[in-house]
Amino acid sequence: MSFKLRSVKVPANSASLEEARARVFDFFRTACRSIPQIMDIYNLQDVVTVSQLRSTIASEIHKNSSITNSKVIDLLLFKGMEELSNITEHAKQRHHVIGQYVVGQ
Amino acid sequence: MALRAVLLRQLRVPVQTLALASRKSQPWSFSSCIRLMSSHDDHLSKEQVIGRVLDVVKSFPKVDPSRVTPDVHFQKDLGLDSLDNVEIIMAIEEEFKLEIPDKEAVKIDSCNLAIEYVYNHPMAA
């Protein structure tokens, strides 16, 4: 199991909710900036637009918006980073990405 | 090596005189010459920036387009939350082909600030 770029960072250990919120926004921005690369890898140009994918990522983050424990948020961020790494390293296939993030949103 | 240096020094002289001669002979003023290869004169006008920023905000799915004005506040007037704020800023980044650093992005809270930031950015396209 090899992650290339993103797992090099030290695992998050947020002291407060504010720090966790800042990390969530950083993760969101990283994900949004890698959307063009994702669309290129999986040839999603005709299937979905960049803004739709952005909204999908935002709604996934919104699903967990009621959590107040910063350690739980850190864990969710770790899982999100792992998912993002898998997608950008082409460890998934086109039908996975379409099924999980395009259909049914 | 010394011969080469001497030869090169000799070669330098004709080029200088040629440039001077051509500059003197042309009737153009100096100010019209210096911007020939410049790529910095295609700044966006303020109306263009305002129009495009408002379009980006209006096409955001959680926003009511009729309430969008150039001085609307994202969280107070449009009822969005902080993540929606970040999303709008990312949409503006995509529209104007910019990359806004995190420190500046935190401060952009309303349409006003967004328009100002984009208008003052030299790389806005």
Automatic annotation (TrEMBL), chain A:
It is a peripheral membrane protein. InterPro entries: Complex1_LYR_NDUFA6_LYRM6, NADH_Ub_cplx-1_asu_su-6. Keywords: Electron transport, Membrane, Mitochondrion, Mitochondrion inner membrane, Respiratory chain, Transport. It is found in: Mitochondrion inner membrane. Belongs to the complex I LYR family. PANTHER family: NADH DEHYDROGENASE [UBIQUINONE] 1 ALPHA SUBCOMPLEX SUBUNIT 6, NADH-UBIQUINONE OXIDOREDUCTASE B14 SUBUNIT. This is NADH dehydrogenase [ubiquinone] 1 alpha subcomplex subunit 6.
